Amino acid sequence: MSASRRDKRDDKFIPTEMADVFKALSDPSRLRILYEVSKTDVCVHELCKALHMSQTSVSHHLRQLRAQHLVNTRRAGREIFYMLASSHVTELLETARRHVESD
């Protein structure tokens, strides 16, 4: 979350920002990417191979996940590795999984 977004928050219920996070989580491909990233730090070409998706598609989804601060990056030489931004992302995914399994 950017500093300006944090400044406006002041612990109020923020439905627009929450909706943006849920929109990012609403795509099955992004959920598959998050699942892979939750296992280990991974680069784009590894995600493409694991998910049988094009580099363009994976990069597009990663851009959306980064915009919602769901994944972070680190550079190692020429490669950029992706990882979950925080344990909150894992909690969101686990809560959603439990919700679906309870039906």
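The record above closes out task 2.4. Task 2.5 opens with a second protein, given below.
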Amino acid sequence: MLIHLEKSPIYEITVPSKTYSYLAVGKPILAAVSGETARLLEGIGAGIVCDPGDPQILAQAVLRFFRLSEEERTKMGKRGQKLLLKIMHQTFYWVNTKNCLNRR
């Protein structure tokens, strides 16, 4: 799956929702991004990240991506999916806790 985001101050501090959708699918991500999205994907090892805006660097990242074994690409996808499920579980837990406390 490919995410390409232009360099923008907003992307330095936010993660676009499509990133979470891609993680949910459980496939490895090739991302030409910077900022918070890059930190998230690199931190969990959910794919290959490169700097946006440079076609040569993106081409090199594509080659690195396709040189990975099927096993490593599968692991990347599963790591991303696992993190997303953990985030969703925590969110669900806190929303339910808040709702229970508000009923009292």
